[in-house]
Each structure stands twice: as structure tokens, then as C-alpha cells.
Specification:
Blueprint (H helix, E strand, L loop, with lengths): L2 E3 L12 E6 L5 H7 L4 E6 L7 H5 L3 H4 L4 E6 L3 H13 L8 E7 L21 E6 L3 H7 L20 E6 L28 H22 L5 H13 L4 H6 L1 E9 L4 E4 L1 H11 L11 E9 L3 E11 L17 E13 L2 E9 L1 H7 L14 H7 L23
Parallel strand pairs: 2-3, 2-4, 4-5, 5-6, 6-7, 8-13
Antiparallel strand pairs: 1-3, 8-9, 10-11, 11-12, 12-13
């Protein structure tokens, strides 16, 4: 029988879309992961019976009967792909007229007709198929549908292409690769499981690509820029650690990559923010952040910034253990900020630590290919400042052919 995991986003009122997931019962944490993205998730344990489909859904029918919905499958067999397609076309509890998108992970079939569904208007339902690289025949069969010419009808200029296929190298053919790892929602501080980096990469990329499709076709839509700006306001203006933490998921993490400072999990990160970040005797009171560029995606923001301050405090997270020098600092900084639903889930913050040490007088730029504040200034003014000033051999190519 199917079970249900209700939408876990409670900060705003909306009618949560339904996601039908066909995956093993022991992998049900993926349902909770997607519930925190704002979906009501129906788990139909798979491998397992798909028929009689509506009977399997009967116990939860009243919770899903009026919602638009999508379906995600993991390792669907060739026979079950045919059965599922037929069941979805006949279902009363999840009617095909409200089906908005389909996602398949590593389906074990080469027949595209059982994976790509047509809607009532004779158009393909928006579909994403995630394949391991060795599924060459299925990829070849799907490829014509990934071009405008292969659809058999004309797309409006404003429409997204309905079929997308992604392949991932060096992941196993079976089981579907997301099932080889754990969803982020279950990861806790101090726990670690060995993980193939190719599986980790494929799972992360495919999750974001899937969420991009779900957000576009089903919603819900969250204002990630507003959420991020509220978070940084609590960090740098109000200097309020508890308020900062309330903008984040239950088990978030922050990693300042150059210094490996931050925290993993609620308690660790709360301690970091309260005692080693938000205090005015840690992050200098004249701190200024200037945004150079911002990229907003389905589940993350990439901010390119200039961080400016005077080194009047011991900045635990930026220059740990370095006593105040009174010197000005100007740093090019990039933040990768991820969200789950309407909460921040992690931050990866990057900057040039050599530039920091040069500006603090701790590294001699005359003996190494490093620079000080010029790094940040060129990021802000790329056309106004020369390139290759650290490259002694740059002059040797002057006047040579570039063909």
C-alpha cells in the first residue's frame, strides 16, 4: 500500500503539489527530503506491485485528490514501465489531466514510449531522464525528443523544451544511483559514510536538475534572494545568532573553505555564529559587503562579492589566531548558498586566503605569485586593471601571432 509524507513547509500557505515516488521502502528518507521542499509525497514501495494502482492509493486518496502532481521513478523495469504508463492513464486518484511532470532515474528499459507521456493536448509532459553513461541505447532512443525537430510539433518561443536527458559517468547501472547514498536530510554532525565521489556528484547534480523541473512545472516558488538577504541581515546588521539560525534547516552547515571554519549541525553552528562570527569583537564593526554578481537557481544562490573591513578584531573565521593589525582588508569572495524549501541548508564560502595574508603583512607578495587588495579590485573592475601582472613571461608573447 502507498503511504504519505505531508508537506513540511509551514511558514507560508499554499496548496502543496503531490509527488508520487516509486522507490524502496528503506529509502523513504528521500520522501522526507522532498516534503521539506514543499511537496506532499506519496511513497509506492518499489520494487513491488503497481497494480491495482488505485486500490494501492485508496487509503490516502482524500489527501491527494485535488492537487497537481508529478511522478519520480527509480530503476523502473521494462515491464513495470509499461504497467505504470497504463495505470497513470486510468487513475481516478491521480488523474492524468493533472499530471505536470515526470522524472526517471536509471530506468531499465530501452523503449522511450513507456517513459515519455503525452498529455490530453497531444504534447509531451515535461520529463527529465537521468541515466548512467552506459545506457547508450536508451539515450540514443530519447535523443531525438531533445531537439525541437524531433517533437513533431512547434513549441512556443516562451516554452521550455519538454524532454531533457542527462547522463552521469562512472556510476553503476543498478540500482539507480541516488539509492546508493543518503539524502542530505538524514546527515548529522559527526556521522560519515564512505561515498563514491562519482555517485555523490551525480546525485547532487541530478537532484538540482530534478528540482528545477519540479519548481517550474509544479511550484512551490520561494523567494531565495529575500531569504538570503534576511539571513545576511541577521548576520551582519543585527548580529543575532538565534535569528540567523532560524533561517536555516534543522541540521545545516557552513564551511568557509580556505580556513575550514564554520559548523556542522544545529548545535555546532549555533555556537560558531554566537561566539565566533556575529560578535562585534570578532567580525569588525565596519564590515561591508558589495555584490558584484548573483546567480539564482532552483535551490541555490551563487553570490560574487567584495568583503571589506578593517582588521581591528581577531576574525576567527577569516584569519584565525591572527591578532588585530589595524590594516584594511578588501577580498573577492564567492558564496554558494543552498536552500531546502524556504530554509538555508548550507553555505560554501570561498576567497583567496593568500590575498588576506598579503594585506595583513604576513606574506611577502614580492616572492610569490600572489597579490593583495588588487585581487578584489580587479574582480570589481576587470576592464580597468591589467591582467597577467604576476606572470613574468607574459611579455615574451607580445607581438606574436594568435592564430
Amino acid at each position: 500500500m502507498a503511504s504519505i509524507v505531508p508537506n513540511a513547509v509551514t511558514s507560508s500557505k499554499f496548496e502543496p503539489p503531490v509527488l508520487l515516488l516509486l522507490l524502496p521502502q528503506e529509502q523513504s528518507a528521500w520522501c522526507h527530503q522532498l516534503a521539506e521542499e514543499g511537496y506532499t509525497v506519496v511513497l509506492l514501495p518499489y520494487p513491488g506491485p503497481i497494480e491495482p494502482f488505485d486500490d494501492l492509493l485508496s487509503g490516502i486518496a482524500h489527501d491527494i485528490s485535488s492537487n497537481v502532481w508529478g511522478v519520480i521513478t527509480y530503476g523502473l523495469s521494462a515491464q513495470d514501465a509499461k504497467v505504470l504508463r497504463l495505470c497513470l492513464s486510468r487513475s481516478k486518484h491521480l488523474p492524468a489531466s493533472r499530471l505536470r511532470c515526470v522524472v526517471h532515474f536509471s530506468p531499465l528499459t530501452e523503449d522511450r514510449e513507456d517513459l515519455i507521456y503525452m498529455n490530453e493536448a497531444g504534447r509531451y509532459n515535461p520529463t527529465a531522464v537521468h541515466l548512467h553513461a552506459s545506457q547508450e541505447q536508451l539515450h540514443a532512443n530519447l535523443s531525438p525528443l531533445c531537439t525541437p525537430e524531433g517533437l513533431g510539433y512547434t513549441l512556443p518561443t516562451s516554452a521550455y523544451h519538454p524532454v531533457e536527458v542527462h547522463t552521469y559517468p562512472l556510476v553503476p547501472a543498478s540500482p539507480a544511483f541516488p539509492l546508493l547514498t543518503q539524502p542530505p536530510i538524514v546527515l548529522k554532525s559527526g556521522t560519515s559514510s564512505p561515498q563514491d565521489p562519482h555517485v555523490q556528484s551525480a546525485t547532487g547534480l541530478s537532484y538540482t536538475r530534478t528540482l528545477q523541473l519540479l519548481r517550474r512545472e509544479l511550484g512551490p516558488h520561494f523567494n531565495l534572494e529575500k531569504l538570503w538577504e534576511q539571513h545576511t541581515y541577521f548576520e551582519f546588521v543585527e548580529r543575532d545568532a538565534p535569528k540567523t539560525m532560524r533561517t536555516m534547516v534543522a541540521s545545516p552547515y557552513v564551511n568557509h573553505i580556505p580556513t575550514m571554519t564554520g559548523g556542522v549541525g544545529f548545535d555546532d553552528l549555533s555556537r560558531f555564529y554566537k561566539y565566533h562570527f556575529t560578535r562585534v569583537d570578532v567580525t569588525p564593526p565596519d564590515t561591508e559587503m558589495i555584490t558584484i554578481s548573483r546567480t539564482v537557481g532552483a535551490d541555490r544562490i551563487i553570490d560574487e562579492m567584495i568583503f571589506k573591513c578593517t582588521h581591528t578584531t581577531e576574525i576567527d573565521w577569516l584569519a584565525p589566531g591572527i591578532m588585530p593589525t589595524g590594516k584594511p582588508l578588501e577580498i573577492a569572495l564567492v558564496g554558494v548558498v543552498a536552500f531546502r524549501g524556504d530554509k538555508l541548508t548550507f553555505e560554501h564560502i570561498y576567497w583567496d586566503q593568500a590575498s588576506v595574508l598579503v594585506q595583513l603583512g604576513l606574506l611577502d607578495a614580492s616572492k610569490l605569485p600572489v597579490a593583495g587588495a588588487e585581487v578584489a579590485r580587479k574582480a570589481m573592475n576587470p576592464f580597468g586593471l591589467p591582467s597577467n601582472t604576476l606572470m613574468p613571461r607574459w611579455s615574451s608573447s607580445a607581438g606574436l601571432s594568435i592564430e
